[in-house]
């Protein structure tokens, strides 16, 4: 199984990226979950540039999503919204359609007790309007994240259990 993990945070010590890294340890060995590293190189979405041939970083993102059996997204919330860099990446996929019928696992992590719930609701709407296969069972949040993940990247028992449940629904959707 070939998956792709996309973090909504560009921060080097991001909690959200760390949660994506933890997926590998919770999945069967046959699954690969590379983390997409190209977010910072994507141009700002501009419909005038959304023509063939697409800008190289955009073509690469589209190919990576098309090639994946499913996509994991883990994102912070900024000012009660979706981080601009992630929204920009998603906007590049609207016309090309790689999210159509693509199984997605969505996680939102935040140090706040709210767990990024406003960005999560918005991301669910965005992904579903783009045609992603996103059942409620493949969505969860990690509130108070700084207390849920160790410096070694290991998740606490409660978060691991929620992650495993979401991953099994995700694999079923694939
Ligand atoms: C935040 N943060 C934040 N958290 C939240 O739950 N709701 C919010 O609206 C915001 N807004 C916000 C704006 C800006 C500009 C910053 C820098 C931060 C806090 C945010 O959740 C926290 O910094 C996370 O640690 C970011 O995720 P990563 O980078 O650790 O993955």
- State the secondary-structure class: alpha/beta
Order of helices and strands: EHHEHEHEH
Indicate the percent of residues in helices.
25-40%
Q: Give the strand content.
A: 5-15%
The side-by-side strand order for the widest beta sheet comes to 1-2-3-4
Radius of gyration: 15 Å
List bound small molecules.
ligand FNR
- Count of discrete alpha- or pi-helical segments spanning 4 or more residues: 5
Low-confidence parts, pLDDT < 50 over ≥5 residues?
none
Largest sheet composition: 4 strands, parallel
What spatial form do the alpha-carbon principal axes imply?
globular
Give the total of beta strands: 4
In angstroms, what separates the terminal alpha carbons? Answer: 9 Å
Arithmetic mean pLDDT: 97
Structure explained in plain terms:
It is a single chain. With 174 residues, the chain is an alpha/beta fold. Helices cover 37% and strands 12% of the residues. It contains five helices and four strands, in the order βααβαβαβα. It has helices at 15-26, 56-67, 84-94, 117-129, 157-173, and strands at 3-7, 70-75, 104-109, 139-142. The protein has a four-stranded parallel beta sheet, with helices on both faces. The radius of gyration is 15 Å and the shape is globular. The structure holds ligand FNR. Residues 9, 11, 14-16, 76-80, 110-112, 114, 116 line the site of ligand FNR.
């Amino acid at each position: 199984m070939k998956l792709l993990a996309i973090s909504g945070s560009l921060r080097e010590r991001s909690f959200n990226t760390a949660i994506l890294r933890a997926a590998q340890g919770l999945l069967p060995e046959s699954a690969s979950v590379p983390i997409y590293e190209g977010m910072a190189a994507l141009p700002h979405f501009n419909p005038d540039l959304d023509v063939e041939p697409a800008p190289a970083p955009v073509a690469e993102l589209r190919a990576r999503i098309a090639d994946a059996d499913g996509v994991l997204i883990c994102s912070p919330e900024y000012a009660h919204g979706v981080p601009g860099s992630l929204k920009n990446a998603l906007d590049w996929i609207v016309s090309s359609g790689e999210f159509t019928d693509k199984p997605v696992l969505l996680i939102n992590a935040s140090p706040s007790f709210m767990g990024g719930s406003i960005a999560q609701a918005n991301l669910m709407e965005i992904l579903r309007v783009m045609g992603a296969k996103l059942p409620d069972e493949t969505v969860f949040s990690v509130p108070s994240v700084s207390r849920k993940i160790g410096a070694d990247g290991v998740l606490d028992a409660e978060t691991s259990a929620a992650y495993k449940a979401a991953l099994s629904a995700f694999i079923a959707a694939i």
